[in-house]
Design goal:
With 425 residues, the chain is of the alpha+beta class. It has helices at 16-32, 46-54, 58-63, 82-91, 136-153, 171-183, 191-199, 210-216, 228-244, 295-298, 313-321, 342-357, 371-380, 391-395, 414-424, and strands spanning 36-37, 43-45, 66-68, 74-77, 101-110, 122-131, 159-164, 249-250, 262-274, 281-291, 306-312, 335-339, 362-364, 385-389, 398-403, 409-413. It has 15 helices and 16 strands. The strands form 3 sheets. Strands 1-5-6-11-10-9-7-8 form an 8-stranded mixed beta sheet. It binds adenosine-5'-triphosphate (ATP) and magnesium ion. Adenosine-5'-triphosphate binds next to β6, β10, β11 and α11.
Amino acid sequence: MIIKPRGTSDILPADSPLWQKVESAARETAELFGYGEIRFPTFESTELFQRGVGSTTDVVQKEMYTFADKDGRSMTLRPEGTACVVRSIIENGLCGDAMPLKLYYFTSCFRYEKPAAGRYREFYQFGTELFGADTPSSDASVIALAYTFLQKLGIKDVKLKINSIGCKNCRPAYRQALIEYFSGYEAQLCDTCRQRLQTNPMRILDCKSPECQKIAAGAPKVTDHLCDECRAHLSELTSLLDGMGIAYELDPGIVRGLDYYTKTVFEFIAPVDVDKKTGEKKELAICAGGRYDGLVEEIGGPSLPGIGFAAGMDRLVAAIRLSEQELPAKAKPAVYFAALGARAAAESNKLAYRLRQEGIYAECDIVGRSLKAQMKYADKIGAKYTVIIGDNELDRQSAVLKNMEDGAQLEVSFEELYKILSERG
Ligand code: ATP
Ligand code: MG
């Protein structure tokens, strides 16, 4: 048997209605906030992610699916969407449009990570990006979009954490303070963090190793090193959120895994898994983002501020499943045509086709079952009505309409069928 690669998933028809619910809530919310959809390629030049995500990040150093194409060019399966969106707006001249430019996307992402609950090698994101505004109110509008979206999904126990990681003016001094602090613990840090100490010390704050997390808990806080502008930006953002009634927690430990962030960063956390032994709920980030004012320039475009987020759809689906709500299911047919004999079967096919053309979900036998087996199948697929047609009915151009809920039957003409089903179906 050929099996799927580790860390990938099949989304089957029984699961799809929940994914569709997430997708429609995402689309609806994005459009309420004035965002337009953008789609981009599955693979891009490797250089885009080296420049955009940052060459010292875990994503670029350890997690990318990179390959040489037949012409020897280095290509990478997208590990995230923001760099792709930025490349696209520069290449397509959208940076010259009236601002703000507001875009949303659905994308699969590829990262070579150690698979676990909520952590896959191919996963799905709903993302949004807003360009051309650097105000605290633009940050607040982006966070409000994410908040509205998560509310629509009815996920329980969602927490919003916010931080500012400073800008190019205040970050260097903070970086220095981190190097000084972590150098004192160099021997206890994990191998990766020992490297990070030289290349990107802020990443240590994001390390998932418990030992490093313990050390990081005592590290200097970025919020104590912000310049006046970054401090004022954060304080105005929090008062805007207060005004909208969006609850948050200021958490100086949130630094985010990608290099391009400046000022505001945020994460929405929720339970996505339950430990089978202890019953303890495991929380992960279901949606995360931040401001990236230098990214467009870094990728070769004009100086254009931006802010966005990406929500991990696999984790959203898992969180909804834990939220004790009724899960959506595949639609059930309004009617099933059960036919006795070849002539009636042909007529059923025609009638089912006609109803589908009118927008009514109809099914009929195409397997060649006996009438009894057809009735059993109609019940199994949850048809609201069954229409039974035999030779006698066919001669009268009518059929027996059976309500599958209460068993009531009545004979109706083919012409009446559509009317009745469109009213009651
Ligand atoms: P984490 O800290 O959990 O590794 P991250 O910082 O790498 O997340 P981002 O790159 O910001 O995540 O991606 C945004 C969102 O995409 C995350 O909040 C999460 O919901 C989802 N996500 C990221 N990596 C994975 C993965 N390997 N499998 C499933 N979902 C993921
Ligand atoms: Mg990660």
